[in-house]
Amino acid sequence: MRSIHQAILFACALACVTPAQAANESVASFYAGRTVTIYPGFAPGGSAALYSEALSRHMSRFIPGNPMMNVQHMPGAGGLTVMNYIANTAARDGTAFSITDRTAAFGPLMGNDNSKFDGRKLTWIGSANIESTTCVIWHTSPVKTIEDAKKHDIVIGASGATASEVVYAKAVNELIGTRFKFVIGYRGSHDTDLAMERGEVQANCGLGWTVVKNRHPSWLAKNEVRLLYQIALSKHPELPDVPLIIDYAKTPEDRRIFEFLFSPQEMGRPFFAPPGVPEERAAALRDAFMATLKDPQFLADATRLGLEVQPLDGAAVQKIVDRMYSTPAATLDRIKKIMNSGT
């Protein structure tokens, strides 16, 4: 009789567990004792690495089961190497996610045969900020205005042919008539910035304004750089006198091309996991990501590192990606021609 009574109580207890509670317990059971690895698509020292390191120190507290977290850098091909890895090779169990160049997800749309994925199928976790990007020219260059950039060659340093600083500058060359050239092979923005200081290159035309003011305040204090233009859909409030390059578009179609290329700025520092991550674990990672980016300890760490935090959840990032993949074919054809032009 007692065993029957106990069985009834056990059954009642099970019935009282909500699906959400059961899923949370399942996620906690999976992550307990495991390690989650964040893969930045660039070398240490750059913004992708700093965001990843800060997340690795705090995000575990918000993931059920509190897994260990580490960072493993996977630089290469302007951030494309890690995206291909996450899309095709990494475990799809929720123990791996990445951050890379914000334009990398759209390589297939630009005719890049090395982009072996569909950006819509990745598991978008969220973005750490909304990016305002600048074209930074070293002070020794004769170029002071956009008109000057049509008359003089400007050498830009970049990590790869698909890196945002190359993608943006190629479009500006084609649509505005500037004369940007490229030196490819730097491991990330940190190395490119050092190359600019050494005089190896003259510009970085894909550098976030937050990076400029927080990581390189001496550049501004000593007038060592010029902000040639902003790469965005609207001006940053701190840069009212720096022109938007999109405003130099000559036709409505040219403007649509810039709008396509600059839309990823809305998801400035996106994190993503492989396709097919179990739904409850993907939800746990997304929730933990957003909770971390609002956490006082994380925010203090971000301030110390000079990182701007404007959280965007995974659903919002997915909408941007889906919108980009719905771009008309005629616009994509022009973009492909621009992106396939020589570097």
Topology:
Elements: H1 2-16, H2 19-31, E1 35-40, H3 47-58, E2 68-71, H4 80-88, E3 96-99, E4 123-127, E5 133-138, H5 146-149, E6 154-158, H6 164-176, E7 180-184, H7 189-198, E8 203-208, H8 209-215, H9 217-221, E9 225-231, H10 252-262, E10 270-273, H11 279-293, H12 296-305, E11 312-313, H13 314-325, H14 329-339
Parallel strand pairs: 1-2, 1-3, 6-7
Antiparallel strand pairs: 3-10, 4-10, 4-11, 5-8, 5-9
Helix pairs in contact: 3-12, 6-10
Description:
With 343 residues, the protein is an alpha/beta fold. It is built from 14 helices and eleven strands. The strands form three sheets. Strands 2-1-3-10-4-11 form a six-stranded mixed sheet, with helices on both faces. A three-stranded antiparallel sheet has the order 8-5-9. Strand 6, helix 6 and strand 7 form a beta-alpha-beta unit. Helix 6 runs antiparallel to helix 10. The longest helix has 15 residues. It is globular. The chain starts with a helix and ends with a helix.
Give a summary of the structure in a few sentences.
By secondary structure, the protein is α/β, with parallel strands linked by helices. It has helices at residues 2-16, 19-31, 47-58, 80-88, 146-149, 164-176, 189-198, 209-215, 217-221, 252-262, 279-293, 296-305, 314-325, 329-339, and strands at residues 35-40, 68-71, 96-99, 123-127, 133-138, 154-158, 180-184, 203-208, 225-231, 270-273, 312-313. Helix content is 43%, strand content 16%.
Question: How many domains, in number, for the residues?
Answer: 2
- In terms of structural class, how would the helical and strand content be classed? alpha/beta
N→C terminal distance: 82 Å
Measured by DSSP, the beta-strand proportion falls in 15-25%
Shape: globular
CATH class wording of the largest domain: Alpha Beta
**Number of discrete helical segments:** 14
Give the helix level as a range of percent: 40-55%
Give me the Rg, rounded.
22 Å
Going by CATH, what is the homologous superfamily of the largest domain? Answer: Bordetella uptake gene, domain 1
Query: Low-confidence runs (pLDDT<50, min 5 residues)?
Result: none
The CATH topology of the largest domain is D-Maltodextrin-Binding Protein, domain 2
What strand line-up does the widest sheet have?
2-1-3-10-4-11
